[in-house]
């Protein structure tokens, strides 16, 4: 099979083609696994974190990609959920132990044996991949393969972060950063909490305009203060300044949820501007959202179908994965990048 393979960790600025096209043997499914013929795979910011070593794969070479849509090509001898030809999706959670406290309570994203698709196991930048059938999801018919792919990560983790904020209808939600995940959160919030007001902080005027189009009541630059205090905030940026700046708009007792697998170090000094009375005093909380549990993916896919969330998609061929990654890092074009794989 054709695959785009990561052989080496390094800065994308120094090496703009970190992935190499390779011809590999087709993977063979284990007894509880399915073999999936991949048709679409989303390109995620987390891949940049893997390539640049902020969340490095434990073994190289590895095939990246964790927003995978395809069809079941073969089923292991002990599978029962899917049949050949079924359309399935695979997200960031590749497997977990199934026995620990976290797994048993449905927070298998926190399991110490959590394995990530396209990092700890080969992912979807390839014609085929295998996965345990319990870690694959049916995709609602309303979505095309390309539309469904970005929902599997940005959407599902956005759903989990919205859940972790504890937002109630009628309250104010802030979003700092307005990329793929945040724009899906805005749509979800407007549907689930029709009386909640959404305020957006983004440094890019185009993103601010886009958020207003989607129903944000206010959009300002990163360091501005929102015109009303916010009950909760979700941060989806890779850096620190937006966190510090957003905290001043947070209500007493409010919660800021950081949705980022790793923060870049470039502006870490900004944390020294944290002023306890302004940013943290009065029981303000900071929480992170880690990965996704399977229920987040399932519930989000159902919700997305119900409200017809259709991400805007920018399409690339598998062989163009490097270009997609560089554009993701350097150019802010709205819409989710997806590889089409034949
Ligand atoms: Zn992702
Ligand atoms: Zn576990």
Architecture overview:
The relative contact order is 0.17. Strand 11 (about 170-175), helix 4 (about 180-190) and strand 12 form a beta-alpha-beta unit. Strands 3, 5, 6, 9, 10, 17 and 18 form a seven-stranded mixed sheet that branches. The protein has a six-stranded parallel sheet with strand order 13-12-11-14-15-16, sandwiched between helices. Strands 2-1-4 form a three-stranded antiparallel sheet, with no helix packed on it. It has helices at about 45-50, 100-105, 145-165, 180-190, 205-215, 240-245, 275-280, 295-305, 320-330; strands at about 1-5, 20-25, 35-40, 60-65, 70-75, 85-90, 95, 115, 130, 135-140, 170-175, 195-200, 220, 230-235, 250-260, 285-290, 315, 335-340. By secondary structure, it is of the alpha/beta class. It is about 25% helix and about 25% strand. The chain has nine helices and 18 strands. One zinc ion (ZN) binds near residues 99, 102, 103 and 108.
């Amino acid at each position: 099979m054709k695959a785009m393979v990561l052989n080496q960790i390094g800065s994308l600025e120094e090496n703009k083609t970190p992935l190499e096209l390779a011809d590999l043997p087709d993977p063979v499914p284990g007894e509880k696994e399915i073999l999936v013929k991949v048709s679409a795979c989303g390109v995620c910011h987390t891949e940049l974190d893997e390539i640049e070593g902020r969340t490095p794969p434990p073994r190289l070479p590895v095939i990246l990609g964790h927003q995978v849509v395809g069809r079941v090509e073969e089923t292991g001898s002990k599978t029962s959920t899917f049949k050949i030809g079924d359309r399935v999706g695979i997200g960031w959670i590749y497997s977990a132990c199934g026995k620990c406290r976290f797994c048993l309570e449905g927070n298998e994203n926190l399991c110490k044996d959590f394995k990530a698709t396209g990092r700890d196991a080969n992912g979807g930048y390839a014609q085929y991949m295998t996965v345990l059938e319990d870690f694959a999801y049916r995709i609602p018919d309303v979505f095309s393969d390309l539309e469904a792919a970005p929902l599997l990560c940005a959407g599902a983790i956005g759903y989990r972060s919205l859940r972790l904020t504890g937002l109630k209808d009628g309250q104010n939600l802030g979003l700092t950063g307005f990329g793929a995940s945040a724009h899906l959160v805005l749509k979800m919030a407007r549907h689930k909490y029709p009386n909640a007001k959404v305020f957006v902080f983004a440094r890019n005027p185009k993103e601010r305009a886009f958020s207003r189009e989607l129903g944000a009541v206010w959009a300002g630059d990163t360091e501005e203060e929102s015109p009303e205090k916010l009950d909760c905030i979700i941060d989806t940026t890779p850096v620190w300044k937006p966190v510090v700046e957003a905290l001043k708009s947070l209500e007493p007792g409010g919660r800021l949820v950081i949705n980022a697998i790793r923060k870049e170090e470039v502006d870490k000094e900004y944390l020294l501007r944290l002023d306890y009375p302004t940013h943290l005093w009065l029981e303000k909380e900071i929480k992170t959202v880690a990965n996704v549990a399977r229920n987040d993916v399932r519930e989000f896919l159902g919700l997305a179908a119900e409200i017809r969330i259709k991400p805007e998609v920018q399409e690339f061929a598998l062989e163009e994965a490097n270009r997609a990654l560089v554009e993701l890092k350097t150019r802010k074009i709205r819409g989710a990048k997806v590889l089409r794989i034949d």
